[in-house]
Amino acid sequence: MCRAAIPGRSVLKKQQRMKNLSLHDLKEGLLHLFYPRLCEGCNRPLIAAEFVVCIGCDAQIPETRYHDMPDNETAMRFAGRVPFTKATSFAYFTDDSLLQHLLHGLKYRHNKDIARYLGRRFANSLAASDWLSAVDMIVPVPLHRKREAERGYNQSMTLAETMAKHAGIVARADTLVRVRATESQTRKTRAERAENMAGAFAVRNAPEMKGKHILIVDDVLTTGATIEACAQALMAVENVKISIATIGIAVS
Ligand SMILES: [Zn+2]
After folding, report:
1. 56: CA distance to ligand 1 center in Å?
2. Which pLDDT score is estimated for 22?
3. Fold of 62-250
């Protein structure tokens, strides 16, 4: 008997996977026919290979290229305030920019795909300079329980998870928690922001983080008061190393 006539288990599994894939593709295709995915930047329909923004808009995001510059602007904003190993930001954040629109959509329109898109772009740019290889764990800036319940998710956690997945490391949302709700920072001065955030965070599972290199991830860096308070809380862990990465850095 010809052995090739009987399909092996792996062949059957592959056929099943292809069947599932084509059904999924068909469903997606039909969905996009009636509801085409549009670019978040220019509103044109996206092609299959594009995700969230078109290739043209993607190329226009002003990347900082800070990763290999130890004295970059992100690092300078934290200098003398908290001990850290490295600090960087992905792109410049200005008023009325595409990045502002994307981060607004992430926060207020609850578009998780934006977090996945930006997290992947940031992780790829960090991989090019071998930035994440020394990091053990990514920790997002936590929202207060109430705020997270209102919004349904923490946008920084989705960013952190995407970055961690691409770098092959872990993201943890249960190690740093917000223990106090804080007032909005938008109308506060730098000193008031620092005072508002002091003691807002606490560390859980400290023994697990002993001696680890932790990367704090957030969406936009302005004065850095929130990240500074997170880093202060993490400093309670024995022999911990801290690095900082934000998607945007606010510049005027
Ligand atoms: Zn576009």
Report:
1. 6
2. 72
3. Rossmann fold (3.40.50)
